[in-house]
Amino acid sequence: MRPHPILLSLLCLLAVCILPACRKGGEQVVLSDGDTLSLKYASLLHITRHEGYTTVSIDHPWKAGSTLHRYVLVDKDKPLPHSLPQGTLVRTPVTKAVVFTTAHCQLMQWLNAEEQLTGVADLKYIHIDYVHDGVRRGTVADCGDAMNPVIEKIIDLRPDVLLVSPFENSGGYGQLEDIGIPLVECADYMEHSALARAEWMRFYGLLLGREPEADSLFNAVDSCYTVLKSLALKQQKPSVLTEKLTGATWYVPGGKSSVGQLIADAGGTYPWSGDNHSGSLAMTFETVLDKAGESDVWLFNHFGAGELTYKRLASEYAGYSQIKAFKNHNTWYVDTQRTPYFEEVSFHPDYLLRDFLILFHPALGLGEPRYYTPVR
User: Is 183:173 a contact under the CB 8 Å cutoff?
Assistant: First the structure.
């Protein structure tokens, strides 16, 4: 029997109410001194409550056994303890944040923390109404490009923190490291699963003073994701290719990436599932064709410029026509200029999992995809 989309929504809501992992009414976890917050999925993040402060340690995603960053969170309404461990001091709740990533801007809205956003970088890539409304009203500052931000404007804002994305071999953050504002390194995207990445919202909830909201949202996402995942258990497993050429290089998600895990959870098979990287792998077209050219489904992101057709796709690169999913017209894309894909999927992976289920197992009858459009 096919689950009706409305029935699916009710199942997800029911799961939020009955699963043991859920906390009634978004109740906040209260830790005593020295207690470590029990995280269900996240492996890079470690949070421990002490008397007068909380420590947050982030494992280095690219250097096993080392620490990327360590933070010491102290309530603004309380005096600093006489003795604090080493780490970047952050007074919480953060009331003024400059954010360099669109996903974290969206998360702030979901946590009812919109008014705590004071500045953004890469505004042209942020498709969120409250952010653009804030820029127009002058309550949110446009701080320029993430790779070359306007340092003077950031200093004038006097934010409590800067939320930035770390990258392997990036060489650091330039002048941002010299202006005395704590850098919160958002390494959530390097987690090995979508739910592990989403669970970082509990850290951001701590920073923003939105712990109950973060706990409640994560429990809802976790529960709905679990219900959706269960629908794929008895389905056939189509093979899935993702992304397309960027210049001469095809970047595919590593086998331990959140996207790779999402494909598996949706009942798909991924050609690089045996790979141990959580970041991207750089490939030539020939390598991709040899490894994944017979994939049943092809998914990729595309930035605007109108409807995408097979004729137009082949004109971009003639080799695409050799891919099985291209030949069988089972190719789908996300127009990231018009769809809030990058804004939403990091902390609502259940939305993306539902799309994958629709594309991989149309017989389930889950309705229309939220993000994906078929190539015509």
Answer: yes
